[in-house]
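Quick one: structure for this chain?
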Amino acid sequence: MASDNAAIAAANAKIKEQNCKAAQTNLSTLQLNGRIRMPGSTALATDAQRNELIRQAQKDVQTWCSK
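Got it. Here's what it folds into:
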């Protein structure tokens, strides 16, 4: 049982690390690129939409990258 729990904890830690890296990459992309296409669309995001995407990406970084 203890080894199963350790394996699960290790797998969860790896997933969290992957999610953290993805969130950081997403945030960086949103911050560095002035022209962002809305997900699932060919339309460019307005400034308000881009700011909301950045806010959500910052929240994702806090969620996945906190210790």
